[in-house]
Amino acid sequence: MDDSPLIRERIEKLAAWRADGIEPYPWSFPGRRPTSEARQRAERLGAGEADAGPPVRVAGRLRAVRVHGRTAFFDLEDAAGRLQLIVRSDEVGTDRFDGWVRRFDPGDLLGADGRPARSKRGELSLDVTELTLLAKAIAPPPEKFHGLQDAEERLRRRYVDLLASPDVRARFRLRARLERAMRAYFDDHDFLGVETPVLLPVASGAAAAPFLTHSNWLDETLQLRIALELPLKRLLVGGLERVYEVGPCFRNEDADTTHHPEFTMVEAYWAYADYHDMRGLIEGLFSRLAEVAADGAPPSSPAAQAAEAFRPPFRTIDFVEALEERSGLSSVPELSIEALRAEVARFDPSVPSDAPVGKLLDRLFAQYVEPTLDAPTFVVDHPLATTPLAKAHRSKPGRVERFELFYRRFELANAYTELNDPIEQERRFREQLSGRPDDRYAYDADFLEALRYGLPPSTGVGFGLDRIALAFTGAASIKDVILFPQVRRR
RNA sequence: GGGCCCGUAGCUCAGCUCGGUAGAGCAGGCGGCUCUUAACCGCAAGGUCAGGGGUUCGAAUCCCCUCGGGCCCGCCA
């Protein structure tokens, strides 16, 4: 691992520091200020001037070194940005100058003391009086101009991707800002942030393959949750009325640009409200998130475009009407399963002969309508067959009270008026159990027991935080907004 | 699961079509330069061409297999 000549050279430099009695991994660097502070003070100066005020101390990673005879320019980068250090031999002394130039390498973490200054070319700088090695990097960083480009290495060694690319750091900062704004939005609307179990005897609330693990204590197989839905609804039964949770869920399925086996789910449940109320809440949330994303972003950026697009009210289309309009089919709700299968087979000959009605309708919608859903769009009132956990529509027979929010052709959020009839819920669970094995919802007897105590009329919503980040950062793949995505072992 | 593409120095990339001693830039080494900013100039060094097998006098290059990755399709609330 450490047999590269480049690493050996750096280890030799490290030994040289120690030989001079300087610890290359010191314990602390008190009084350090962000580089932005030095830049702000330097901004007031003319080219070639130095600030006569108190000295400033900064710390960060050495990104580039330009030695120009007896003057050297170091680019130091911290979380606040980049600062040029001007190191002059006649200021710091010949011996120290030569030692620093020889022993500091790009990638090293170092501290600097000096006076804010502007170079003769006007660059915001620090006129250095002292440099301190804070941690020697013995591995060389990626090339300074292109950074780390190899897609595989960027995922496997995210720390290198991050240290080499301010853009990548900015993307994950934006993700964190979106999460914070989202929590604040729910908090401000009197939703209670809660945490429910990740480890469960049976993962339920969605149709997805779970990951399995084992409890030594219980000597039982446990499953990692695939959704947050059922525990949160239990909390409504318990009288908490408005709850939300943000946390990881796990689905033992393939990854692609919008799916990842480990992802961050957000779900919120609201008692004494229906899906119309939820649509208003979600419209407000997403327009707020888009504003947050656009704050400080350039006008043509994906975030700025999103802020423009997510201005309420969002377009609303009826599932069946949109499908009929786009596909040319008529009376879709009356079509037999044979007719639906024949329609799907026109573009997908491999459609399984036992595909249920709900799946066929989803396929048709995905084929004809989803590709047109670039702008934020609520798709409402799905056929009952596609949605087993939602409450039947109060006025449209054969439909449920549900909406999905689409943007850039993928689903961003999914909500319904919740089914709260315990008898009906049990019937639907049993119906699912008799379906295809990979299609079933896990039967959750304790949840049915909870419903018997009375779940208020309620609405709930779920969405993937990763997809929010994907939509508002303009990233190409969900892996680009997950710090450490799953990768196959080499 | 199917198709297409990629893997060459620590990093960014040429070279592969048409087989003939492995190239550049950055980073690192040595030397020069007191205001550069992808600094610049000179010298020297740096390789399991992803791995394995095959064809051939000769393979980074052609063929097959394997590993890893990307894109598209399929699957997936």
Largest sheet at a glance?
8 strands, mixed
Per the principal axes of the C-alpha atoms, what is the gross shape? elongated
Q: Which parts are unreliable, with pLDDT below 50 for 5 consecutive residues or more?
A: 436-440
Mean of pLDDT: 91
Could you tell me the number of beta strands? 16
List the quaternary state of the chains: single chain
Identify the strand order in the major beta sheet: 6-10-11-16-15-14-13-12
Q: What structural category arises from helix and sheet content?
A: alpha+beta
Give the helix tally. Answer: 16
First-last Cα distance:
15 Å
Share of helix among residues?
25-40%
Strand content: 15-25%
Estimated radius of gyration: 29 Å
Describe the protein in words:
This protein is α+β, with helices and mostly antiparallel strands. Helix content is 35%, strand content 23%. The protein has 16 helices and 16 strands. The protein has an eight-stranded mixed beta sheet with strand order 6-10-11-16-15-14-13-12, with helices on both faces. A five-stranded mixed β-barrel has the order 1-2-3-5-4. A hairpin with a 2-residue loop joins strand 14 and strand 15. The longest helix is centred in the middle third of the chain and has 23 residues, at 166-188. Residues 436-440 have low confidence and may be disordered. It binds one RNA strand of 77 nucleotides through helix 1, strand 1, strand 2, strand 3 and helix 5.
